[in-house]
């Protein structure tokens, strides 16, 4: 079943045409039945399914993990393809705690170089290599096509704007939370 067929199936379910796999969780479901509780669980489970799917697809087609892609993305977006390791850690969406290890692995693969910060010798910089730039460029095409298959095929512009608005609210609130 393709992603689009899976979402069509879920839409049919939401419209009452089929059974929603998230609707009946059994007699021991502790999530709750309120719309917010059901939405939270659906959001969390969907995020996990999508992340797992993106990870598998990216790894099998490019050899990069999603966290590697995110690391290279941040460098590709940075001026001169270079960022302080501390700045990278703050911006990483995936596994910021493993940044030093990840940098060593990417450096060993020839995708980045690390060097002391010329402005502050206590800090380290990560720089995208030419090979890293080429690897990222190829991976970006693969990743973008997969996102179009998973997301763009089933979410229209209005839904995308609403989803973004909701996710940003959740993200801001989570950022303010102490844990």
UniProtKB/TrEMBL annotation:
Any Pfam family the entry gives: MarR_2
* Gene3D superfamilies assigned to the protein according to its UniProt record, in alphabetical order: Winged helix-like DNA-binding domain superfamily/Winged helix DNA-binding domain
Q: Which InterPro entries match?
A: HTH_MarR-typ, MarR/SlyA-like, WH-like_DNA-bd_sf, WH_DNA-bd_sf
Return the SUPFAM superfamilies for the record: Winged helix' DNA-binding domain (SSF46785)
Which residue intervals make up region (Disordered)?
A: 1-33
The lineage's top-level taxon is Bacteria
Specify the HTH marR-type domain's residue ranges.
36-172
Q: Signal sequence: where? A: none
User: How is this protein named in the record?
Assistant: MarR family winged helix-turn-helix transcriptional regulator
Species the sequence originates in: Nesterenkonia aerolata
